[in-house]
Design brief:
Length: 163
Amino acid sequence: MTEEELAALEERLAEAEAEVERLQTTAADREARAAHLDETLAEAKAELASRDAELAALSDEVAAARSEAEELRGGLRSAAEKYRQAVLASRAEVPPDLVGGDTVEEVDRQLEAALRMVAQLKSHLESQAQAQRVPTGAPARRALDTAALTPTEKISYGLGQRK
């Protein structure tokens, strides 16, 4: 082997060593980046698990709150129904069909409307009864209208008045 060939081989060897070094640096950078990405992924998974646990806890709280709200609504409906029954017992003139509601406020509003309707009906019925009222006893006597009588009837009437 000649010196030229040897120099060419050494040059190729140096280039190959430089290429190996560059590839090792690139591989090390990529391994470091992969390790960093693995860490980031692990942190993201841990955060996701934490948020999933938090979401599950919040979902449980929401379910408990909904259950409690439904119980409270049931209690409110029960209390409103008892209030309605007590009000209707004290107001016999109000028909039960006119008063309803799921809350005390609704029962009060419907009761007021029913009382107004009952008052209007009473007033209307009283005015009708007043218009149809017939005085007691016999009607007052009036003089006979002689314009419609024949002359013979008029004479008989006149003679009957003398007695």
